[in-house]
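Protein in question quoted for reference:
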Amino acid sequence: MTNKFTRVILFIASVVMAVVTAISIRTCYMATKAEHHVRYVGMMNVASEKIAKTIRGMEMNAMNVFDEVEKHLDSPETVIAALESKTSLNPEVRGYFAAFEPEYFPEKGTWFEPYVVHVDTSDFELRMVGSARHNYHKSDWYVRAKKGNESFWSDPYYYYDGSDISGHYTTFVKPVFDKTGRLVCVCGADMTFEWLGKELERIDEAMRNDTLLNKYKNEDDDFYTVVINDDGSSIAYPEGKKVTMTAEQTVRDLSQRKSGVIDMEVNGVPSTVYYGPIEHVDWSVAIVVAK
């Protein structure tokens, strides 16, 4: 009887120890997971703020150019001079343009779009890009500007005219109206996504070296930052690390400017992706963490 009782006690003790061990492991796992969540949500917010700050700076520089055009609508020559006078404001801008309504300057006909384009590290040159082939009046950014009365960032697009300015762009756009409220032209600052890729590299490097953000870092942790459009497609990302988000709820979050987290496979690697909106634009930042 005593031996049987002893075995029962030992069995119960071993079960209790197993349960306590399992609970401890589970608690440790959940605590580690929570710490990781805090870390990467923090990184996502930092990245979003840094990108938004860069974008605000670009907007301010572009608005200075647009304001200069608005003050000099007397002739085609004064418009061109206004564009050229401010081109050195931001080296990341590919070019500045003013796309006019048909016959605004009768001598210029249907398409008058002077474009001051960045051709190398220091020089800009003037090109006239409006034509029947490049009928900007039908472009999405022009139609949207004509209907609205606010500046905005265009959806990413590919522009091709056979020249060296062909490429993937986004454009900061502002409609310009005369004193009667009539649309005069649409001004824009073109940027390729190279500047955003460089910005992501700087942000990732800074976050990897940030003591506070790396408080809960594990040795095996690896991450990178991407910028996602509101349809789930990548805008900017490290080379070879394009991310496409297709889950219905996630795409809905992106379009509604909500934050979230999703476990998904990214380029064949099981990953956790933390995402959240960027101020001023219809894009989101995402931190991709390999599991």
